[in-house]
């Protein structure tokens, strides 16, 4: 049964300006620069100032004073067609917006952010195939094998499934034995260990490339026959079964540890090493006083294109004259683009202000830490602590802390790494969990490598230092630090 009824509800909706601000808040400075360039390409009213304080001369050819040829002149005085621009063209509404405060000059050096361009290891392997005399069919099979390698350089695809793939996609009839033959050719390419089907095969491929290195025979024996004992670090069993001395085992283990378990990363990491972190904030210690600045060195200065503003002003001055429908559509288009440009620049300015006040609150909260970089001086801090200081929502603080970096005199750090939970010591004082992790990491770093500390022993050490935490908590912190258990940390 259908019926109608009236109902009142309160809904909270975000305006387009608020949505734009939230999106701009969560992107770092490097991505913001690209976002500004994208907005400039999409909005002709928004432009970058070429010179500081320079104004763009109006383009008199674009003034909509005359009726275009072929258009029928219409009266513009109806209430539905009237566009009131008196308030819209107020001087306070359309200023020459700029992002910077005029503290730079045209002589300042504008440094471009370097970008590393590197090829993937798959592209490098395909290039190496040209050095081998392969038939067209063999080359297609080899490229298919390379295309099935994962990021670490392993072949996880089953060979029988590859036989079906080649039959359906390339119309090539082959078999498993033929693919294994081509796979051996691919495994001869650089880097060593590529196209292995498991870690054991990867290490063996690399060991075979080393030639006659002292200890190589024992190393290959360990990987071929005692691989499970090796990964579990059961060195006593290996020495007993292989009838080798501790010194010989140490040499063999050192050879194995020098191998790369992920050969596919050997090439990709070269490009990753050339990537740079662009900090969003810069903290400088001047004679014991901390100074905070936003990184805006390469941020372009934005303003409204004066040509389009003059077009609206000309339309307002000639309001009594007849105008065509296309002219009114052009005016509405310009008005919408000016609104969009104003919203965008206001959102940029609001973003800069929100970033600054949030980082200022974090710096003041962790003032003692930012003076010398001692992690033991970090205070427990959660998003709510900063949100209450700056009177902003917790979600806003989370967006600010996401993917943002701060440059300090002792290094560049991810902003969200300064947030941590609190724990009480034996004196009832609240301390940061990051302080506990730092002490835990120092204890493990200074331990005897042939007799590493267990979680129970680490728990006892922390209790002696005044941090009464449970063993499972120690294990959790150790896992968060990517530190393995004591048995896997043991060296001979």
Commentary on this structure:
The protein has 492 residues and is of the alpha+beta class. It folds into three domains: 15-64 and 275-419, no CATH class; 121-269, no CATH class; 422-489, Arc Repressor Mutant, subunit A (Orthogonal Bundle). 48% of the residues lie in helices and 7% in strands. The protein has helices spanning 16-25, 29-42, 121-129, 136-147, 159-170, 176-187, 199-209, 216-225, 227-231, 235-242, 246-257, 265-273, 306-317, 325-365, 367-372, 383-390, 394-401, 433-445, 455-464, 471-480, 486-489, and strands spanning 46-48, 281-286, 289-294, 302-304, 405-408, 411-414, 422-424, 430-432. Strand 2 and strand 3 form a beta hairpin. The relative contact order is 0.12. Mean pLDDT is 78; it is low at 51-82 and 90-103.
SSE blueprint and pairings:
Elements: H1 16-25, H2 29-42, E1 46-48, H3 121-129, H4 136-147, H5 159-170, H6 176-187, H7 199-209, H8 216-225, H9 227-231, H10 235-242, H11 246-257, H12 265-273, E2 281-286, E3 289-294, E4 302-304, H13 306-317, H14 325-365, H15 367-372, H16 383-390, H17 394-401, E5 405-408, E6 411-414, E7 422-424, E8 430-432, H18 433-445, H19 455-464, H20 471-480, H21 486-489
Parallel strand pairs: 2-5
Antiparallel strand pairs: 1-4, 2-3, 5-6, 7-8
Helix pairs in contact: 1-14, 3-4, 4-6, 7-8, 8-11, 13-14, 14-16, 16-17, 19-20
Beta-strand portion reads: 5-15%
Strand-and-helix sequence, N→C? HHEHHHHHHHHHHEEEHHHHHEEEEHHHH
* Overall pLDDT score: 78
Main sheet overview? 4 strands, mixed
Number of beta strands? 8
In the residues, how many domains can be counted? 3
Structural class: alpha+beta
Instruction: Tell me the helix content.
Output: 40-55%
Shape: extended
First-last Cα distance: 82 Å
Number of helices: 21
Low-confidence stretches: 51-82, 90-103
Rg over C-alpha atoms, rounded to the nearest angstrom = 33 Å
